[in-house]
Design brief:
By secondary structure, the protein is an all-alpha fold. The protein has a domain at 60-130. Helix content is 38%, strand content 0%. The protein has helices at 24-38, 70-76, 81-89, 95-113. The termini are far apart.
Length: 130
């Protein structure tokens, strides 16, 4: 006599999930690629640019400078918010320029340490102008 499936006709019990078709490594690689695709191409750290070890670069806060322009460094390393606001008020910097500089620095940090789950830069800062 054939055995009956105990789940047959019982819709309250979940069916077994099918075996995964991808490994967690493949899923992680796909997620990294999708995040990278959201970042502006001109802000990608070149794959030919090796990231130094902690022994080679003990002060990691200096590492983003390698990928920023002098102007972006000047903007993102203002000593205080008051100093930055003063420069904005005097029109030494534009709001778009400041936004781009800080977004660029954040994108660099993300690429170095994968610090964000979803980068909030899927827009052109020029869209801020309307």
């Amino acid at each position: 006599m054939p055995l009956n499936d105990p789940n047959e006709g019982n819709t309250s019990l979940p069916k077994e999930d099918p075996p995964p078709t991808t490994t967690w490594q493949q899923t992680a690689a796909a997620k990294r690629a999708a995040l990278t695709a959201l970042l502006p191409a001109e802000w990608h750290i070149p794959s030919t640019s090796p990231i130094p070890t902690a022994a080679e670069q003990p002060n990691a806060t200096l590492l983003p400078r390698k990928y920023l322009t002098e102007r972006e460094i000047e903007i993102t390393e203002c000593r205080t918010a008051r100093e930055l606001l003063g420069k904005l008020a005097k029109r030494e910097y534009s709001a778009v320029e400041v936004t781009e500089a800080f977004c660029h620095r954040a994108v660099i940090a993300h690429q170095l340490v994968r610090s964000v789950h979803f980068p909030f830069v899927p827009f052109s800062p020029h869209q801020l102008l309307g």
